[in-house]
Amino acid sequence: MDRPKKAGIFRLLICGDVNADPGREVARRYVSLFRKTMDVDFIILNVDNAADGFGVTPAIAEECFGYGADLLTGGNHLFHHKEIIPFISTNERLLRPLNIEPAGNIESAGNGFCEIVTAGGVRLLAVHLLGRTNMSLAGSDPFDCIDRLLDGYSLGKNIDVIAVDFHAEQAAEKNAFANYLDGRVSVIVGTHTHIPTADGRVLPGGTAYQTDIGMCGDYDSVIGMEKKSCIAYFVTKASASSIKSASGTATFSGVLVDVDLETGHALSLEPIILDGVLQQQGA
Ligand SMILES: [Fe+2]
Ligand SMILES: [Fe+2]
């Protein structure tokens, strides 16, 4: 599991949606291990489903920071537990989607981006946005929103690394968004579907990209939820409230991204899938 790293490289670990107790268990195990063994500079964890499949509580957010995560992102379920509102309002390292409008809504508490200077002096901008196709939370135009934000930033000049979590359902929307940003950000990962895609790569302009980085959760399930209750939802139109999270052994799913600090562009993206049914069947 060792990954030697050359000087001038900034290494990010970005972990897919942490789903319920099994996801937190596998995230706890691997985030701290990767921090020690893989020379990772910055760790981002998506916590949209960390609290039993829906949102995150202040205690669980603190727990996730305790694993060694530097930054947490959310998604459409972020405000499921209302007690997260005062927490996100005062903690700039838990991001809500940037393109939530109008301002003043519950869902616009907190911030959608964060500029951090790391212990090594690297200037990093993290951004979180929501897609607009088939999402349970409505966002404004993510293309326009990120254009306005990036207007003040230029890779290799006034910012060293830009990392984007685009939380969206539709592959085409994610694919279009990544190509729209190619060369302007270091890495953009898709989250939300919980199914890792096999298209991880560096785009021609230098942006690392994967349509969806999967989930940290039990894959012997329907996207992390217990199979029987999910099938009933589709077959008999049973209430969504009857869906429970799955409780079996989790898979860790995420990506490791190396960024050249000279240019701010990515050199590589490596998917990491460990444990649980995905690992067993792929090994
Ligand atoms: Fe999710
Ligand atoms: Fe989501």
Roughly how many Å is the radius of gyration?
A: 18 Å
Q: Helix count, per DSSP?
A: 7
Instruction: Report low-confidence residues grouped into runs of 5 or more.
Output: none
What coarse outline follows from CA principal-axis ratios? globular
The unique ligands bound to this protein are:
fe (ii) ion
- What is the third-level CATH name, the topology? Purple Acid Phosphatase, chain A, domain 2
What is the C-level CATH assignment? Alpha Beta
| H/E element sequence | EEHEHEHEEEHEHEEEEHEEH
The main sheet comes to: 6 strands, mixed
Proportion of residues in helical segments: 25-40%
Sheet-strand content, in percent, reads 15-25%
Do you know the CATH architecture?
4-Layer Sandwich
- Largest sheet strand order: 5-4-3-1-13-14
Tell me the span between the first and last alpha carbons. Answer: 15 Å
* Assembly of the depicted chains: single chain
Overall average residue pLDDT: 94
Write a short abstract of this structure.
With 283 residues, this protein is an alpha/beta fold. 25% of the residues lie in helices and 24% in strands.
General description of the model:
- By secondary structure, the chain is α/β, with parallel strands linked by helices.
- It has one domain (9-218, 251-282): Metallo-dependent phosphatases (Purple Acid Phosphatase, chain A, domain 2, 4-Layer Sandwich).
- The protein is 25% helix and 24% strand.
- The protein has 7 helices and 14 strands.
- It has helices spanning 20-37, 58-67, 84-90, 142-150, 171-181, 227-235, 276-282, and strands at 9-15, 17-18, 42-46, 71-73, 94-95, 113-117, 123-130, 161-167, 187-191, 201-202, 208-210, 215-216, 252-260, 266-274.
- The strands form 3 sheets. It has a 6-stranded mixed β-sheet.
- Helix 4 (142-150) links the parallel strand 7 and strand 8.
- The radius of gyration is 18 Å and the shape is globular.
- It binds fe (ii) ion (2 copies).
- One fe (ii) ion binds next to loops.
